[in-house]
């Protein structure tokens, strides 16, 4: 199974779909910046983890050889959905940079500044990005129901897709509303990681792929036993990168998560072991949306001093071990097991 | 065909669906304010025009008697989609009041003010409302594909639904990006009215309903000949109400559209017949997001002095006549024709 090849084929599906949408827009004299912004964002980068896992799930359930068009289109629809999720996420978090480029709302705001002035352009950019995200969500459905799936495949996939969409949106909701209020609530932080990342980015794509090859409930459970610890480890690594990662590698500004006061396991653990004086600092700094670099560096030092950083590293190791044991038990096709093992490594040891 | 009865049955479908989602949320320990906000918004009002038109389309194509559950669920899914559209629309327009109540983002902001402070609460309210709108969009799909439609019905409905979603989002995009820059571009204003309102609110719901009873291409064309002029007239009336309507009847603040500098036919016509001095005032006032009441009243006076208000009234009358002639030609079932004729009257003569 060639990873680069799979990525190229998924991107071709996405590119062809957007090209057709661009032709429709031209015919209706609709602004071309809508499909343009989606294309710019999609092809600026992204790991295509969800399409890859979807195809791996299909192989795990017995899908042989090169994935057929309906499987690829389903994989592509997961990436289009993810595009929607990231565009809206960046608006809600007020993020300026993603994939080393201006986020969609920032790029659109810049586009409108000349005609509308800076103040109006920011509102316009956010509004236009909300709409472009909405279109990406609607188009992820269109990609799925025009994928050429059989009625049986659709009947198996749709409930999983409904669950995935509801889970990730509640996960985002918890993530959004918990930010800025530091507490030691590790359970909440791990629930956010589970719904926002582990289930959405790892478990459900595998499940959906397996459903395309009529995978059994047993297989689904085996995939979950691997996916949930890997997904949690992936998020825990993301939390560490958000606080300690190098911007030139992550493609995001340094300390972004800290500035946004995200309620991560890293922060919850730090809070639990912080002195009253440190808790006081965390309260003051993390509730300030305009926290400066100095403040972020103070938080970073508390994350280290309290041992939270080390604890999160060991949580990642434990989950990676757990996932490898689950893989060993599962008895998946060797090629799939190898790919999932590699993915567990890169996802938990990655620097970006 | 009992209108009140149809509305009650659609609302029961929506209420039962949200109740099931609330049970899932409780079981997962997800915040109950998500389904709560949707229920509050849905049942605070709304004309349920799209569900009604969907059922009328089904009757027009030969659907007999009381609409069966799959037709009602499809009608309900259109209302859930509309809930998504209004929630995001109010965020983009910065509207505070809808259906005589605080908009969803305002209600959520108020909810968070105590814990997060006013500044953070506004951002949080907007972000949470974006997510709740996203869920309403995803759930409108779930309502449709769990409606119990036959594969043939789904195959006919899905392309129409895809078209509807793409059209309304581009219409909103044009509406958003044209605001604040007064011009005499009447074509643009009418394109916005067509995509944002006429096709989305009238034509597509009729088409989707007709597709549920395997309506012919000929019927679809007949319905369009009625729907497009009625939908345009509906939007033109909405524009007049946005500038001249009584807030206690419209449920929206007076002069809301004017304050937002919406590029309506009303405004385009005023611009075309405005003196240079009036155009100068329009430029200065309509580009100001913080236009005060005095400024809005000046714009209102220009809408009257230029004759734009009268011209829009006559455009409404012309479209209503056109729609009635189309109905007379169409030879629809008498009960359907009567209901559509009444709808054309209320939609174009309404005060709210």
From TrEMBL, chains A, B:
Transmembrane segments: none annotated. The keyword Lipid biosynthesis does not apply. GO terms for biological process: isoprenoid biosynthetic process. Its cofactor is Mg(2+). GO terms for molecular function: metal ion binding; prenyltransferase activity. It holds the Pfam family polyprenyl_synt. The keyword Metal-binding applies. Keywords: Magnesium, Metal-binding, Transferase. Gene3D superfamilies: Farnesyl Diphosphate Synthase (1.10.600.10). Belongs to the FPP/GGPP synthase family. This is Geranylgeranyl diphosphate synthase. It comes from Streptomyces monashensis.
